[in-house]
Amino acid sequence: MDLVESIKMSATTLVANKLRSSLTMLGIIIGNASVIAMVGIGQGAQKLASEQFESLGPNVLFVLPGSREARNTTFDLPKTLVWEDAKAIANQVPSIAGVSPEISNRFLISYRNKNSQSQVTGTTPEYLDVRSFKVDKGRFVNELDIKRNKQVVMLGSELAEKLFGKQNPLGEEVRINNISFQIVGIMGTKGSFMGQNQDDAAFLPLTTMANRLQGKTSPYGTEVSWISISAKNQASIDAAKFQIENLLRRRHKITGEDDFGVDTQKDILSIVNNVTGALTIMLAAIAAISLGVGGIGVMNIMLVSVTERTQEIGLRKALGAREKDILIQFLIEAVILSAAGGILGTLVGVSGVFFVGVVTPLKAGISPMAILVAVGVSGGIGLFFGVVPARRAAKLDPIVALRSA
């Protein structure tokens, strides 16, 4: 019997038992859809993280307080960075384009009967260029605000809408931690970064934030939460990092472990990609278990089919069919079931990834390699788990098969 005839017979047999064939394919469909969806969502998370880091600004470095061990083990970081460190970096590091010290905390912001618990950042005029922010209306912090500790505030676009609706907020006053601040600017839309909505935020002069809201807690100067720095260009990033580390070690008189860390966008993105990549592999591995379960289902149904079709097998062998012919037919049936389930599962998985991309911020990412691997594995599973039933059918003695019928 030629291969085409075997395929026709296998297809006819499967179509004749639609419900059983559909239930057999269900495990493969779920397995394929799960693998493709998990890989696609993981890749979407990596794309989203990359875009968010790029939105921080070009060639940005971050100086963070505390040793690397302290940053990994506690949320209450040591108070080791001060404004004077940022000034020293700006004056003595030649490979940088801008420096922006920041003090950040969450405070209650009120306007009449509306309240919002939002992020408040005290910073300097360089913040706009270093972090690639734009002002939509009004102005940003200027040097006069810094010198005079002026009680002015710039609102993020979402915070402004939350407190004022369609009303123009410029010139109005809001209360931050029960202190009045005049609104002088509205920031352009920036989006979220690492789960933090940058549009639901307020910006103050650094000195005002330190003296009126945060309070001074370091004997060495105005304590800052971190320092954002932009290198002159991509090629200057490594040099800037090296120079900043050497300068701060001298300023802090460090002889052992650093009490600060300098991270580039690439460093942080690499960490995030490693985490999301590991999660993607873990989720895909868990989803792949259902492929194995689906394969067991194929073998189970095929064994049942061999038992039910004992008379057919005996008759075919009595008419001259070889063991090879019987083996090939049952293997083809198993592969058709698995391949069809793989294709349907692929369609479901791809649709799921696009649906997630529509309803969430994740970017839909479909990996052609994941699709090829999933469909190939599902076909391989059919072949692997179909061997035992096919061999059992091929080994049936025609006389015994006909008698048992």
Summarize the structure.
The protein has 405 residues and is α+β, with helices and mostly antiparallel strands.
Characterization of this structure:
This protein is an alpha+beta fold and 405 residues long. It folds into 2 domains: 3-51 and 271-404, no CATH class; 79-258, no CATH class. It has 14 helices and 12 strands. It has helices spanning 3-16, 18-54, 68-73, 83-92, 127-131, 143-148, 157-164, 206-214, 237-251, 265-308, 310-318, 323-359, 368-394, 398-404; strands at residues 60-65, 96-111, 114-123, 135-138, 152-155, 173-176, 179-187, 192-193, 196-197, 201-205, 226-231, 260-264.
Series of H and E elements: HHEHHEEHEHEHEEEEEHEHEHHHHH
- Cα radius of gyration in angstroms: 33 Å
Major sheet: arrangement of strands: 2-3-10-5-7-6
Strand runs, count:
12
What is the number of helical segments per DSSP (H or I, 4+ residues)? 14
Unreliable stretches = none
SS-derived structural category: alpha+beta
Report the major sheet: 6 strands, mixed, barrel
Question: Distance N terminus to C terminus?
Answer: 24 Å
Please give the share of residues in helix: 55-70%
Shape: elongated
Strand content: 15-25%
Mean pLDDT, all residues: 80
Number of domains: 2
Membrane topology: Multi-pass membrane protein
Family: Belongs to the ABC-4 integral membrane protein family.
GO molecular function: transmembrane transporter activity
GO cellular component, one term: plasma membrane
